[in-house]
Amino acid sequence: MSKIFDQVGASITNHGKNFVALYKIHIDAAQRTEKIHNGRNVRLVGEGCFEDRFAHSLLCALPLKKGMSEADRVIKFTGGYIRFVNEKAAEEKAQADPDEDTDGDTASRFTAFLLRYLLQAFQAKDKNIRYRTLQTVAEMVSHLGEIDEDLYEELRAALLDRMERDREASVRLQATISVAKLCGAEDPSVVEAGESGLTKLQETLVVDSAQEVRRAALLNLPMDGKTLPLILDRTRDTDDMNRKLVYNAVLEANVTQGNTEIIGLTHPRTLTIAQRELIVENGLGDRVPAVRAAAASLIARWVETENSGVLALLKLFDLANGAVAADALLSVFTTNETIFDNLVFGDDYWVNLTPESAFLARVFVDHCKATKDEVRLEAALPVVTALAFRIQDAYNKLLEDNDITAEERLLGSIKRNDKEFVISELLKLAVNLDYTDEIGRRKMFQLVRDMLSRDALPQSLVASSLDVLRELTANERDLIRVVVEIIQELREDDEDGEEPAPDADAETNFGDTPATVKPPRLSLFQRPREELSDAQRKRTDHIDLKCLSMCAAMLERVNSTFEENLTLDGILGELILPSVRRDDVPLFREKAILCLGLCCLISTKIILSSIDYFMKNIPKEQGNIKIVLIMALFDLLMVHDAALSRTQGGSESRQKATQFLTELLDDNVDKKVLALLCMGISKLALNGMITDQNAVRKLVEMYVSPKTASNQELRQALTFSLPVYSYSSLQNQLTIVRIFIPVLLKASEVRKELDEDTEMVSSSRLSLMFLDWTDPFKLANEDKKVLCQLLNKLHIPDNIDDDDIKRFKLLISNLRERHPVRDATSKTAFNKFEVMIAKKFEKQLEGFDSEEYRKLESLQELFAFLDEIIPDDDDDEVIDIDVKRKGRKR
């Protein structure tokens, strides 16, 4: 047996023949027995000797460290031999008489002995022994054959204990593999709730801190409807390899069942829309190229399983939120160029468009535009006039739905949404058209203008229509004028609701868009609301809401100032401000406040009054209106910082507003509001607009507070912004230093009042965070680092004038004395450069003395410059401490 173990430890190729050789020894030993108790019983002397010798040989491999191949091969041989003897026992049992009563065979007795022997080492103090023991069990556990139920329960309990409690990740990994293999043999009716191996495996996948343990759970967890959500959560795992394996080793492997065409658990038709979008969004949006490639491979596999190609794939996504579907489609274009090359958009393609075909055409055009593939782009895009007629035809069919009954409208809502989506995609496509054809341009302009002039136009199409209109107008001023005219037309509608007929002779030029002259009429919007009927109020509200949406979309697309477009004054006074004052319909106020905030971004005249209005109304409002008000105030402060400094009273208003926003942190419990406030205040602090250390202190307190533990948006924002704020300047780090003690004391007080079940950041972890934020080596000083690294790339001539080299040496010496570099990379580069100069010009710099050089008249100007440099403070000096390292014992 010793010879066999020597051979299997040296190479894995001889394991097969040594299985046979060891089995012969095992069978021969099993035949050696001894009768006891006057022949009534038999002692298995030979088996006992074989088991002891086998255990002794295996014991030699258990203390060996992880990574030693000899031990790995011995353990692999042990697991292989267990499989071999149990397969032999199964063959003999199949050939034996089924009525014959046996007390167990040699294989089961040997397996039980080895398991009990290994179970003794599960609690060993040596981590190597625990690792090798669990590794051996992991090799054996799939081939245990028939074992005693008590032994099985003992093994299962010991494995679960090691998987949960062992401090070594390598041991937990082997235990996880073993538990995963035992899951199939569990009886749900016997196992207690929460104690099943499958449940523990799911917990390990989610909470274990070691990436390799989570990886083992991921690859060995049985996939079903309950475990699939946990596996999909691993698409956001912190480890790159785990995220990659989710896609190529788990999801792609289960698209079909084996090599058959039967759909599997991760087939796109089996998954829900939310699951499909989660897979695509997390995979293609990953920061690691290997993960993105694995996700692209999975999507390509999905396309292969769909006989209808990409159109069938698009039906599996929610195209209304088209970003995910577009990413999936672009991935298919990249990974399978054959599909991209074979797409043809002939005249027949545009006749009966579906949401999927319209979406495909639009994404194809966007892709050609992004890759500058002008040949395919020209072949795919229809003529401007033809596309205008297609849009007009689709819009007319959409208007026909307005004449149907309410019941029919309810049944046909899905079809109506599809029609709106097709028009939206065609409008997005129209943005990329070539409008050098004047006839086509006029047709498209008149069509889009007429669509916007109708109050029946769905709000979902307003933004897309304005994008096309922006391409058709000469400049922003012309765009604003056209939109203002449309809004005035809608609000000057007559009492009976009859829309004015469009001017058939109106022509449009890039530089001159004619205004429509209308006879004066008594408008519904000019009469008091009390005089209007219920139907008239509903009509005016509907039109005003559409006008506000159009106004907001227009303001989002312009950058010119309010003062350059005087036509906006009428919209502000007649539409926006009256809607802001309305209290009966919250949606009106929300839209109007959004428009007012956008007006403030391009106007400097209404800054101070708007700040006062926002501050006055934020405490009163709730929900979306409050969020819009806060966002508007933050945007105003960020955009008009310089203007506020120049305006009389502007600095006081800015300080008052920032203090007001900081105080709101104490008064709000809404998660979205708190997250918005923290993000906005951190941006203002990072830009130097908030210098009050109390504001920074409140941000840190919010970050570590147990009340915000479930507010992931807030935590994620501050996880990024607080380190960036700290590393951006020395002054910011000093602010962090000053707030450390108050934050630590406040956290201690909060921790004392917490319930036992509530967790909070410990004092040690909080201190480590502050220590990291105040690390002087992490200050953003990339410019100096880059310049130091460039020094060694300079070409220094061999012959330099004595005065020039002395000047050079003086600059180097003063830099070292007055502004020494701090980080290791810059210091190494600078020292290397200084040594090179000293060696290369050793003779010219011999006897270098800065005091002697100071007396030279030619260097007076240089010394005057150097004397004006303020040296770094002594407190900022970094002292290098050389730690003596112990020599390695031999």
Structure report:
The protein is mostly helical. Among the domains are: 223-342; 343-472; 479-603, no CATH class; 665-780; 783-876, no CATH class. 63% of the residues lie in helices and 1% in strands. The chain has 42 helices and two strands. The chain has a two-stranded antiparallel ribbon with strand order 1-2. Helix 27 runs antiparallel to helix 28 (586-601), helix 29 packs antiparallel against helix 30 and helix 35 (712-728) runs antiparallel to helix 36 (730-752). The protein is globular and about 120 Å long. It starts with a helix and ends in a 23-residue tail after the last helix. InterPro entries: ARM-like (IPR011989), ARM-type_fold (IPR016024), CND3 (IPR027165), Cnd3_C (IPR025977). Residues 546-785 form the Nuclear condensin complex subunit 3 C-terminal domain. Its main location: nucleus. Residues 491-516 are annotated as: Disordered. Residues 491-506 have a biased composition (Acidic residues).
Strand content: under 5%
Please describe the biggest sheet, giving its number of strands, its sense, and whether it closes into a barrel.
Answer: 2 strands, antiparallel
Distance between the termini: 34 Å
Structural class: mainly alpha
Q: Strand tally, please?
A: 2
Helix content: 55-70%
The Rg value, from CA coordinates, equals 38 Å
Order of strands, main sheet, comes to: 1-2
Overall pLDDT, averaged?
A: 83
Taken from the alpha-carbon principal axes, the silhouette is globular
**Helix count from the secondary structure assignment:** 42
Low-confidence stretches: 494-522, 874-890
Main location: nucleus
Protein name: Nuclear condensin complex subunit 3 C-terminal domain-containing protein
GO cellular component, one term: condensin complex
Subcellular location: Chromosome
